[in-house]
Specification:
It is a single chain. Helices cover 64% and strands 0% of the residues. With 296 residues, the chain is mostly helical. The protein has a domain of 88 residues: Arc Repressor Mutant, subunit A (Orthogonal Bundle), CATH 1.10.10. Helix 5 packs across helix 8, helix 7 runs parallel beside helix 10 and helix 13 crosses helix 14.
Amino acid sequence: MTWVPDAEQSALPPNAGSRRGRKPAPIVESAGLSHRAWLEPVRGFLFASGLTLNDLVDRSGYSKTRISELLRGNGYYPAWEITFSVIRALGLPVPPMRRLWTAAAREAQKEPDWIRDCIRQVALEPEPPPLAHQAFAETVTRAYTAYARAFLLTEHRARWVVTETFDILWLCWSDAATSENIRRYAWQLLRSRVMARAHRDAEERPDLRAAVFSTSEACADAPGPLTALSELVDLFAAIGRLPDDQMDVAVLRHLCGLPLEESADVLGLSTAMAHAVDHHARATLDTLLTAHRSRE
């Protein structure tokens, strides 16, 4: 499954067989990014499970109106009790959902006391993530965080998005683990969460120019620092205009300092493919920078 945020079938497991469940009505536009982070997987699993809305009503004990509102993100942000009943009916793991639900509650400007009271109403048993999930997360956390930091600029925001990614990945772990390329699956998920929050330029492309000031080159006491800084700004702006894979390789290699082989592993690409993408990225950057200079 390729994770595409805000797409109605973005969370559908790829191996879903017969589907008798009716697709829920679309998520309301007012639902925030953190709200969608857990709502999209829940909707996807409901649709893929073959359960109808009536089935979910019977299993959860809540009315059709309340379940329908929850699935659309409509009305008030749902309490943890009804959210818990829905995810339990679908067989989804609780700990990652509770963290995602809590983050979205804060996004919805719910009071801390309300959040704590909601959570206290439902006693939980310890539920560690799958060992394979833990092992995978450990191998990619450093690279994921560096990539997120290049776009989101602060360590706190980068770590928060990476944690969100791993929680969603836990929800979808059974599908991720059986996908053709788990690293590619997870990377597309991480990328979607970063891009949903990345600053955009006037043409709605990812804007990396602010990341210049976190690089060692920008801080170096070299001759002509203003000229060097201007060139870096142009370079970073051009990287943000690259096609997706080319941009990702360029960011991991040249902003995050990962060797090409490690970048390929993180991205879920073969080394040969990563070399080809890197070659095309360099050629595209030369073209973009030459065109930019000719306009000056």
